[in-house]
Structure formats: C-alpha cells, structure tokens
Write a structure and sequence with these properties.
32 helices; nine-stranded mixed sheet; alpha/beta
Length: about 900
C-alpha cells in the first residue's frame, strides 16, 4: 500500500483512507487483505539445509587429517589402508551429519514454539490473533509490556510511552498521542506513530495498522533483519577450549610417536599411518556435537513438561539453581481468581447471593466492570461460556459483574470512557473518566485499599454518600484484616462526581491530584485457590536443596497466610514488605536476604534488588515475572522465567517461558537441567577414556616392546574402533534417562569444574587400565604362542569390546552398575548390540579379516577377554564406590 503522511491526518481521515473504522475490519475483509498483502512477517535467516550440514562435516580438522593420511597411503601404494581411511571419513561424516541434523531440527522446533499474539478489534469484538495475521487497517489494542506488532497510527492513548531504542538507540521512552502532528519521524519526544518491534513501557492505547512485514520501518532497516546468533554457552566454550588443548597434546604425542618409531627403525609409511590413526583416536571429535545434542534433547524434554527453553545456556544452568523466586498468582495458585466477598460499610454480602445484593453491593460490582480493561471475546454467547482476556484480577471482576446480571456491552455504552490513568505498581490504583447516559461525568477508581482509603473523603451507605469517620475507617480495616488472614486478595473501589471543566482537565492531563475526595464504595475480596500440587512441589524443591521464595503484591497478612498454607513456615522475622525494602540499605538487605521466605506488597523494581542480594550470597537465582517492569530482574537473574501469560517484553528477556505458569514445571525443568549436566559428563568420560586407551597401547608398545615386534594395533584397526564400534554407543549415551534420586542431592556448585576430581580419576583410570591390560595381554599371548596375528586380534577385540562393556558402568556416576536397570536406555542396548555384531564381522568374516588383518578366535581367547572385561568393570566400580562413599560422609 502506498505510504502516506499518516501523522498529519486526523484519526477520522486515517480510518477513511484505510477503509476501516473504530470497530475494526470485518473478518472477511481482514482475510482478503491477508491474501493480498501477505503475512506480517520479516525475512528470516536462511535455515541450514541437510545438504549444508552434510558439507560442513568436511570442514572438520579430523577430516583434514584423515584425507592427508589417505593421500599419503595412495602415494605409498597402500590401497587397502587408503580405502579404509576414506571409508572412515565417510562414516565420520554420516555420524556427525545425523547428530547435527538432529540437534538443528530440535532447536528449530523449539523456536517455532515461540508465537507472538496481539489483540485486535474485528467486527467490534476484541480478539487475540497471531501477530503474523495482522493486516493493514486492523485496530490493535496496545498495553504496557506489549511488543508493537506492525507500524501504525495512534488513535487512542492513555499515558502511553514507547521504548523505541531498538530503532533509534535512544533509551528515553517516547510519549505517544493521538493528535495530528505536523512532522513525521521516529525518536521524537512525542508523536502519534508506532513502529514494529518497539516496546510499550507504560500506559495503554490503540493504533490502526498502516504497514506490515517488510514495509515497516523495522523491515526497511537491513541490519535489524539479521537474526541474532545463538551464542555458545559457557560449557560449550569450556569444551571448545578443552578440545583445542587436547588437540595440541595429541599433536605432540604424534610427533613423539613418529620420532620414536623412526628411531626404532619402523618404516616411515607404517609409523606415519599409525601416528595419524592415533591422532584420530585421541581427538574426541564428537564431543562438542554430542554436548549440543544433549542440550537440545534436554530442551525438548523440558518442553514436553510445559516449559520452553529459549537459550541453550539456560538448559545448562538450570541444574545448579539454588533459589527460585516465584510470583504467587498463577504459579503457586491456579490463576483462576473469583470474587469471594464484597464488603461495604453497612454489611458483607456473598457473591453467590446476587438476588439479595443491596444498592451498595451492586455499585461495587458495576465499578469493578467500568474501571476495567478486561475484554470479552464473545459477549453475546447465549450459553454464557464467555472467553475473557486480560489481567487476572480484572477478569475476576468482570466475571463477577456478568454473574450478577450486568450486560458487558450495556455497561460500556452507558458509561462511555473518556480518559484513563493506568495502574502502576508505584501508583497502586487505576482510574477512568466516564460519562454516563445522562451526561454526568465521574471518575471511577480501583486499587490497593490503603491507597483508595487515603484518597477518600466520603463513604457510600445505602446509596447515599456521607463524610467518612474514624469509626468507618476502623471497621473497614478490621474487615480487611479478617479476610486477609484467610489468604484473600483485597482491593477497593470508589468514585467521584466531576463537573465538565474538571473532567476536561482529567482528560487532557491525566492528573493524579484529581483522584482525591473520593466516595469510598467498598472492598472486594478475591480468592485464587492454591494449586493442589504446590505444597508438595515446595517440599520436593526443599529436598533437592532448592529454596523457594514467594513474591507477591498482596498485603503482608494475606502473603503470610498463603505462605503457611503452602508449608513455607513463614514467621514475622522471615517476611518483608515493599515499604521495609525501601527503608533498607543494600548492605542491610544482603545480610538478611537468605532468611526471607516471603516478600509482600512488592513492586517490580524490588525484584531486581532481591535478585542482586541473593546473588551476592553466592546463590544461583531463577526469577519469574510477567510484566514489562519485570524485565530488568529477569535479565539480571541467572535464569529468567517468563510466565506464558506474560507480556512480550518479559518473554523476550527471559531464558525460559513457562507455558503452564506452574511452579511444578519449574522444578521439573531444574531436574532436567541436572540430567543434562550429568549426561554431558558421562559422554565426556566415555569419549575421552576411549581415546586415551589406544594412545597408551601404541605409546607403550613403542617404548617397551622389542624393536622386532610389530605394533599391537594397525592404523585400520584403530580407525575401526574409533568410528565403528564406539560411534553408536556415544550417540546413544546422549539419550540417557534421568537417574533415581537425582533430586535428592543439593545443586552442584557454580565453581565446580566440569572435569572434577571424580571425572578425571575415572578417565585416567579407565584409559590406563584398558590400555595397559590390552598391552599386557598382547605380550602374554605373543610370548606364549608366538602367533602375532592372534595376539593382535585379541588386543584389537579387547579395545573394541571393552568400551561396549564399561559404557554400562559410566552411564551412572552416582550408582553402581549392579543397582542400575540395564534396559532403561533402549537406544544404548541397541547401539551396543549393533556395535558387537560389527565386531563379530571384523573377527570372523573373511572380507573383514583381509582388511583388518584379523584371525578367528577360539573359546580360550574369549575366556581371556571376558576376564579382562570383568576386571575392568570391578576396578571402575571400586573407584566409583570410593567417591560415592566420600559423598555420603
């Protein structure tokens, strides 16, 4: 559509030019425009295709080494060795390709789960749709915390500020108005245009869409079209550094092997191929890919439990979480708020007895509907199956009015809204200016009882206002405390009559000072049932060494009651409210933060202080949030968790999106975080131990065996072990399920190295044990029988098969092999069986015997090998037992 100067047109002109109205487009017209102009999406970074991933495998240093070795073999006339090396390249490429493709597909599916929604008005009804289906002419409802989904002209604004830093780099929010502007341009202090990708930092408004997709300002700025790359996690960086160091060490070993081999008189072509094979065996090439697969699989498992992990680093960090700071509403409670009691000056009524409601009662309910931004998607539903969108509290108030017999559309028509002062955590109230059907102007207010009472001069009794007395205040506060002790959330409603002149001032200036001299109408007590599983979940977290801190906007009494219902054992000395936090210095808060279990009457800026204080005590903090002002705390925490019902800003900042808003899901995610870390360690132990074993055999043979005896392993055999028999179990180990009692242990310390003393001891022990035993058996068999081919085949088979045996030992670092269900990982069982079958072909099939220079083995040979396997398992399990015993002490 042709670009116009929308800023200097009136709202009426814009609506006319875009063939729209305040009731929005019709559903049919919107559908036609979607087909004409296309979806509201930006060009995305081209995905890696399967072919690209396959070709990228040839960029590996390992492949370069193998290709050089193949070339040298061809030059030297060693056609069999060259062919086997090229086959090894192909096999390595296939394994790497399958692993990376699996990880890429897993991460792509996770990204597809992130859907952006927007509220639009169509056919006069507010409806939530996918942002990509927004079209030119749509009327979009905008609230604090939303990310603006397209470019548009503001047609309504209430204290409406937008953060345009993503476009301009300026951090100061821009005030938005609906009036005509002479000049166009973003980044000014005040204008009437909104831009895709910018964030609403305050207030509420509406806009009509003027551009979508590539035609928006965001779409026209090329550098903003580049998708942000997923950064490597600290663990991946640590492993990359480890692999680099390992590569340097391997190079030195290769040089040493070459020099010693040549010094011993071994032909260059033979020792060169052996050195290359040792280099290939020593480099744990699949380590980084395997770690990425473990992370991706862990993220998918977490998704199945109800959490969407947006960043790999969160999957890695989850397992070390020590404190979860969680909102109460929707996370510890069901998020199904409903009005439980209405308190007026003269009496208390139950919301279920609408036929007996007095005039004051009905006034309370009507104000709850008028001073309210919740919307009904299907207001005319005859079955009264209303779909209500909006804040939890406002939905409860609206539902209460509908239950009392009020008509949503009649309320809006009879009390036309002319202005609004939005609720903020600092202001603690919301106020609207309305004109009723008789032409009178009124301010309607709802908010925290203490705030509303302080602003009230009068009280409503039996439909008549009179001055509020000390006795009125005392009785109201008494009722408030009684209901707060029952764990109910309390809000107040009030109103004020205005003349036309004062109402104009409110509309133009949104002046808080006008929200005074109110007529206090009543208190509304709202209940939100505690989730049935919440208490048990908190106990599970406690057993896992994870502390739960509840953060709520409720008053101190309500917060304490709910905390104790959840089994948090809240006393007066471990609960703080927002006022107390404001009085404390950072040093004072840091000194007591580890004792606090509940924070009441908390504003978003308090959350950041709480996170910083906990981190100063060495805690790894996960913080939940849903509002635009929660973003700094979510970003500062070690793991930011946005509620699925939260704002786009919170979701964009967070590491994890909690799709079901349930604390139990967070604990499940923490559990999977621990599983992820454990599985990464298992893969490292398996791959690195296996790599060093063959290095020790070759180095030991070169140093200790007589010169006239050939080396115990050929280059082709080393490649076979590394790429054929060990490749499948390595892949299967990434799918290892969780171990029992993993949540009975405290979180790992953040400064604990990935390769701790236990992991290093296991790697060194397995490598030396496997390598030296293999070398000893070779020397023993050759010395007794003089049959080199037989000794070579036994040594080759020990190194190939022992990893298929001890993989069952290293798959659990916290339990003995005899306590672990052997069949709990069906993929590993299948991988081991397949690898064993391959090895049988290597030993007994004539074709492979010719290539690998092997001979058939008899029952005596197998008895000797089985003895070696059992010996290795026993020693590995003894080492594990010693470490497990130390942990229990």
């Amino acid at each position: 559509m042709k670009q116009e100067n929308w800023n200097n047109m009136s709202v009426k002109e814009v609506l006319h030019n875009l063939k729209s109205s305040h009731d929005g487009l019709s559903f049919d017209k919107a559908e036609r425009r979607l087909k004409k102009y296309g979806k509201n999406i930006l060009p995305t970074k081209k995905k890696f295709t399967a072919i690209t991933i396959f070709l990228n495998q040839f960029k590996s240093p390992l492949v370069y080494i193998l290709l050089v070795a193949a070339l040298v073999s061809f030059i030297l006339g060693e056609m069999v060795d060259a062919s086997v090396i090229l086959f090894a390249v192909f096999l390595n490429t296939i394994v790497g390709f399958v692993q990376e493709l699996k990880a890429e597909n897993s991460l792509a599916k996770l990204k597809e789960m992130i859907q952006h929604k927007s509220d639009v008005i169509r056919d006069g009804i507010e409806k939530e749709i996918d942002s990509e289906n927004i079209v030119i002419g749509d009327i979009v409802v905008l609230r604090a915390g939303d990310r603006i989904p397209a470019d548009g002209r503001i047609i309504e604004a209430h204290e409406f500020d937008v953060d345009e830093s993503s476009l301009t780099g300026e951090s100061v929010p821009v005030s938005k108005i609906s009036d005509v502007q002479d000049k166009q341009g973003f980044g000014k202090s005040k204008d009437n245009l909104a831009y895709m990708g910018t964030v609403i930092s305050r207030g509420r408004g509406m806009m009509i869409v003027t551009s979508t997709g590539i035609e928006t300002k965001f779409g026209q700025i090329a550098q903003l079209l580049k998708e942000t790359e997923e950064e490597d996690t600290p663990l991946q960086k640590q492993l990359a550094s480890f692999s680099k160091t390992f590569g340097i060490l391997t190079f030195l070993i290769v040089v040493i092997i070459l020099l010693i081999g040549l010094f011993r008189g071994i032909p260059f072509e033979e020792i060169f191929i052996i050195a290359i094979a040792v280099a290939v065996a020593a480099i744990p090439e699949g380590l980084l890919v395997a770690v990425t697969v473990v992370l991706a699989i862990g993220m998918q498992r977490i998704l199945k439990k109800g959490s969407l992990v947006r960043k790999l680093v969160a999957a890695e960090t989850l397992g070390s979480t020590t404190i979860i700071c969680t909102d109460k509403t929707g996370t510890l409670t069901e998020g199904k708020m409903q009005v439980d009691h209405i308190i007026t000056r003269c009496s208390i009524y139950s919301s279920t007895k609408n036929e007996k409601c007095g005039i004051d009662h009905m006034k309370v309910i009507s104000i709850g509907m008028i001073c309210n931004n919740a919307k009904i998607e299907n207001p005319d539903d005859e079955l009264k199956d209303w779909r209500i969108h909006g804040d939890y509290t406002e939905r409860a108030l609206l539902q209460s009015g509908l239950n009392a017999g009020f008509n949503f559309q009649d309320i809006n028509r009879d009390h036309k809204r002319l202005g609004e002062i939005p609720f903020t955590s600092e202001r603690k109230f919301m106020a609207t200016l309305n004109q009723d059907k008789s032409g009178d102007y009124k301010i309607y207010v709802k908010g925290a009882p203490e705030e509303i009472i302080n602003r009230s001069k009068y009280v409503l009794i039996d439909g008549k206002k009179r001055k509020m007395t000390e006795d009125d205040l005392r009785n109201l506060k008494k009722k408030q405390n009684e209901l707060s002790k029952k764990g109910l959330r309390i809000i107040s409603v009030a109103y004020r009559d205005l003349n036309k002149d004062v109402s104009s001032k409110f509309k133009e200036e949104n002046d808080d000072e006008l929200v005074n001299n109110l007529v206090f109408v009543g208190l509304i007590a709202i209940k939100d049932p505690i989730r049935l599983e919440a208490k048990k979940t908190i106990e599970l977290a406690r057993e896992a060494g994870v502390g739960i801190v509840m953060i709520t906007g409720d008053n101190r009494i309500t917060a304490k009651t709910i905390g104790n219902e959840l089994g948090m054992r809240v006393e007066d000395n471990n609960i703080l409210d927002g006022h107390q936090l404001d009085q404390m210095s950072t040093k004072e808060l840091n000194s007591i933060v580890d004792k606090i279990k509940v924070y009441a009457r908390v504003s978003p800026h308090h959350k950041l202080r709480i996170v910083d204080a906990l981190q100063s005590r060495g805690e790894v903090v996960a913080m939940t949030g849903d509002g635009v002002n929660d973003a700094p705390a979510l970003k500062s925490s070690d793991i930011g968790i946005a509620l699925g019902s939260g704002t786009e800003v919170a979701k964009g900042t967070a590491d994890i999106i909690l799709l079901d808003n349930n604390l139990k899901t967070i604990i499940t995610a923490v559990e999977q975080g621990r599983v992820i870390y454990e599985n990464i360690r298992k893969v490292i132990v398996y791959l690195v131990s296996d790599s060093f074993s063959e290095v020790i055999v070759i180095m030991g043979a070169i140093i200790f065996l007589p010169k006239e005896i050939s080396l115990p392993l050929t280059a082709v055999q080393i490649l076979w072990i590394n790429l054929v028999t060990d490749g499948l179990p390595d892949a299967a180990l990434t799918l290892e399920p969780k171990e029992e009692n993993i949540m009975k242990e405290p979180p790992r310390k953040t400064n604990e190295p990935l390769l701790n003393i236990e992991i290093k001891t296991l790697i060194i022990s397995i490598s030396i044990l496997s390598g030296l035993l293999s070398l000893a058996v070779f020397w023993y068999v050759f010395s007794v029988t003089g049959d080199f081919a037989r000794a070579n085949t036994i040594t080759f088979s020990i190194l190939a098969i022992d990893s298929l045996v001890y993989v069952f030992s290293v798959r659990s670092l916290r339990h003995s092999i005899f306590q672990k269900n052997v069949f709990s990982n069906k993929y590993l069982i299948g991988a081991v069986i397949a690898a064993f079958i391959f090895q049988m072909f290597a030993i007994y099939h004539p074709f492979f015997q010719n290539i690998l220079k092997t001979v058939s083995l008899d029952i005596y040979d197998w008895s000797l090998m089985i003895f070696i396997f059992v010996t290795e398992i026993v020693i590995i399990e003894i080492i594990k037992y010693l470490f497990l015993s130390q942990k229990k002490v």
